[in-house]
Amino acid sequence: MQRRNAIRLTAALPFLAAGTSASAATSTIPKPSTAPAAEPFQLAFAPHGGMFKAHAGDRILDQIQWAADMGFSAWEDNGMPNRTPELQAKIGNLLAKNNMRMGVFVANKINWSKPTLVKGAGEHREEFLQSIRDSVEVAKRCNAKWMTVVPGHVDLRLEPFYQFANVMETLKQGAAILEPHDLTIVLEPLNYRNHPGLFLTKAAQAYALCKAVGSPSCKILFDIYHQQIQEGNLIPNIDASWDEIAYYQIGDNPGRNEPTTGEINYERVLSHVHNKGFTGIYGMEHGNSMDGKPGEMAVIEAYRKVDSK
Hints:
This protein is globular. The strands form two sheets. Strands 1-9-8-7-6-5-4 form a seven-stranded parallel sheet. It has a two-stranded parallel sheet with strand order 2-3. The protein has helices at residues 3-12, 22-25, 53-56, 60-69, 85-97, 123-142, 160-178, 203-213, 224-230, 234-240, 266-275, 292-306, and strands at residues 44-46, 74-75, 101-102, 105-106, 146-149, 184-187, 218-223, 245-249, 281-283. The protein has one domain (3-28, 37-306): Alpha-Beta Barrel (TIM Barrel), CATH 3.20.20. The chain contains twelve helices and nine strands. By secondary structure, it is an alpha/beta fold.
């Protein structure tokens, strides 16, 4: 992903911007944490850069260490490809030291207003495939297994099934690059309100794409926040697309903040997913409902409440 896309992405998701700050880029050895070790969460919740900076400071390694001390066992970083290779490796080493898993990063350059992958063969496909090749090296350095892919905007002048076939073929070629490395594209359907005009919006659509690609390296990222807005019916849709879901992301609605601040019954939804046998990562892709240290502790308290027992 090119840096200009990271700027575009963080503009769309402002709560992620702190994770790619200049001070984070110069992080070296994390500061020893003064926080007492907390009970580990049962579910693999993954915070992101900036979520706990009032407690941990601006440096990304310090934030990861603080999250580990608070009981989190995973981390998420959409902008990981924009970090230096040296910092990517340091993040991977720190996660391993704390027995934490690396969650998703965004693999491809997303065009939010013009069609790209729906067009099929050509410059956009080649650019996408190069981003997947580059992502292999990023994933190795930070110990990642999953990378988010958003196919981009629809083409209003092209019949939808042709667009589907074009995206499917592009994903099939991308998955073939990842299969030898045991890495996985996770397709993220996004909602019409935050991201109007995108090609991929529904769980069933992502499910059909994964079945058509037919690769273990192409799965679904089920973002509960996006799907609540786009179509609701969360648990039945999770069940219907279950065998193709590899990753979840969390955010309550309205507000896109921590669970318990909106309308989604996260205790029920996460319990259902956990009891069906999901052992993967739940990315905390949302903001904090309150500022500062009280807001950060409120996030932790909310996740204690919805953590499956």
